[in-house]
Fold this sequence. Notes:
alpha+beta; 586 residues
Amino acid sequence: MKFLKLLLVVTTFVNAGFGNIKKDDFLPASEAFKVSAVQNGDVIETKIVLADKIHVTADTLSFTIVKPSEHTLDVKVPASHELDGDQVYEKEILINIPLEDIYAKVSGDYTLAVNFSGCSDQGICYNPISDKFDFEGNPNAMGTWAKVMNALENSNPMAIVDILINESSFFVVFLFLIMGLLLALTPCIFPMIPILSSIIVSQQSSDEKPSAAKGFFISLVYVLSMAITYTLVGVVSGLLGADIQSAMQSPWVLTGFAVMFFALAISLFGYYEIQLPNKWQSKINSISDNAQGNGLLGTIIMGFLSAFIIGPCVAPPLAGAVIFISQTGDALLGGIALFAMSMGMGLPLLLVGAGAGKFMPRPGGWMTVVSQTFGVVMLALSIFMLGKVISAEVTMFLWSLLFMGTALYMGVFDSAKVKSGMKKIFQLMALVFLVYGVVLFIGFLSGATSALQPLQKFTSSSGTVSSVIKLEAKSGYSIEKLKAEVAASSKPIVVDFRKKSCASCDELEHLTFPDAAVQEELKRFTFITIDVTAQSDDEKALMKHYNLFGTPSILFFDKDHNALPDKTMSGFQKAEKFAKHLKTIN
């Protein structure tokens, strides 16, 4: 009896609330939601027209590229309103997607998907909806080669990632080889030539005939060790999500590098020889015709160290490969691509090595002079590394000692009567070194901090452009904190990520940002400097969120607070190039 009463109550309740609803009263999805997307000028205009008493839940609305590769678009959506505790849209949803946001992610024809979920006010919800629309690609899109040149010119790691994702594996490796060759044509490779030449000279015995084969073999060992270093750094960084390149800039590591360069310099001055143990050397000698094994360990060490000397030059492709590995997990392709780039960059060095081995004059006393000259180069590299750790004033003092000492070594005060021809020019160079060393010492005493402007304390005038940006680096940033500061700005935003003991960061601060043209452009921007030296969890998450690898990295936001990943810059930037880049951001 109780069961019958309960059944009667339930039946009455159902009939009272829903008895007047019929299946025909519910509109099919095609009538409840009418979706359109058309290209109009430089935007894709999307429209969702909702039938009466139909709404779309705001947090389900998204726009994605599904072909040729999948990407989620960050679009600016209109304000929603609350309905029964949910944020919803009703009547009509109009959203414009800038074509530049799409072209930054894909090349060629693409498919746009409009995704959302909606419900009827009567209480029924429809299945998730995803309407797709096909569009033609950018008619002015750059070809693959143009993309490579653009990526290198703008120092944009994300452009490298785009190439890695959208091209075939074989072509990606070929492209990175070409990138290496292009990098070899830049001044980045110049420091490697005297280093490699010094290695070849130091391994040339007095009774040995110059050999192109030996020169090529030494160069190959040098280039291979440099290439393997880059490959390991890139792969490990990508898989672990670690900034190993920045870790290598720690004071302890840099000091170790400086000591190693100093030790190599002393070796070149003839105090001792760096080489493999005799048993190992004998085996290598037998393989390489009893010639190439001498000093092989020193060659390997120098190749390893050289990889970090020219690190800033390869920051964009290295960062792009690391981001690609971290996002896709494809360490094999990323590693091979980096190895190909390194070998391409080292190809001219192989030619230099072979040529130096073949056309080097016959052994003689000149070899001692050349070895000692390159010993001075090693000392300069040691100061360069140490300068990233110690104060700028002390670095200036060390440079002054090096130049004055080199001048004395070159015989600047020797009698000119006993010198003739090239020896007089040599003595003139020694005099220039002495004068510059004295100028550096005066700069050190005056408190100057730049070896390029040692007399800045005496030459600065009141007419110099005053800084309009605050270079005070702040730490402790998180994704939320940065977004809050970006949202509070009414201007486009420049975010400079830096670390202590980062030479390229200091170059940006002292050479690029103070430039008059850069200062003038930066008046339009809000400038934020973030110090990520501590590498806290929040700082790591922040850099990962914006796909940044290493420092310096410069992130840009437009005046509508949208991040511009295609504008991101990595590594040191010259003032003229940076000012031109700022003009493209609004």
